[in-house]
Amino acid sequence: VDVLHIDPPWLLQGDTLVCTYQWGEAFPDHKAMLQELEQLHFRLSLWISPYLPIGCAMYEEGIDKGYFVQDKQGSTIVNQGPMNWWSVPFVYIDFTNPATDRWYKEKIKRILQDGPIVLKTDLGELGTDEALYHNGMDGKEGHNFYTLEYQRIVFEATQEVYGEDALIWCRSGYIGSQKYPVHWAGDVKCDYANMAGQLRAMLG
User: Fold this and answer.
1) Bridge partner residues of 6 (DSSP)
2) E-assigned strands of the chain?
3) Does the pLDDT value for residue 151 go beyond 70?
4) Model confidence over 129-138: pLDDT tens digits?
5) Number of CB atoms found within 10 A of residue 184's CB
6) How many Cα atoms sit within 13 Å of 183 on the Cβ side?
7) Is residue 84's pLDDT more than 70?
8) Across the chain, how many H-helices and E-strands are there?
9) In this model, does residue 204 exceed pLDDT 80?
10) Strands 168-170 and 131-132
11) 182 preceded by cis ω (within 30°)?
């Protein structure tokens, strides 16, 4: 085994598909764990998503600075959690804002500097039509661009820590995503119909 991956349970509030970017109670001494894994020649991969739950530390930092996606009236958009049965109310990080870019990169680098080698950039495809992104795109126009910016920023932060060994593990994609390796095609069933769909998607 080369890589050990931990999905949302590594996180504070890790029973949802939102991301606090903080280690949770299940790992009371994660730095010691990372050191032990390194001694055993394991590399660690961690799951993240671009959706912050209301009330987490990063939410409190970013809400007054305009770091989250807003609607056309200038109000921060709050998704009340219909994403799936694991969700809670959350906001969307606005990756089209250069100030958000710098702030978010520092959060990513802080996680990586503890020792994880790769971040699984899950989700990103849950844009909202009501959005008016910082760069002027509306919700429909910015829907696919959003996931590309998410990948770009995480990849660039990883490069700043790991140089040419940088790697992320992406779910959703758009034109240009090939610059940010690697990708998987989302969660699918193991049957021939889904395999055919995967081949069509990859070849397209």
Assistant:
1) 46
2) 3-6, 43-48, 51-53, 70-71, 78-79, 90-92, 118-121, 131-132, 168-170
3) yes
4) 999 999 999 9
5) 13
6) 19
7) no
8) 5, 9
9) no
10) unpaired
11) yes
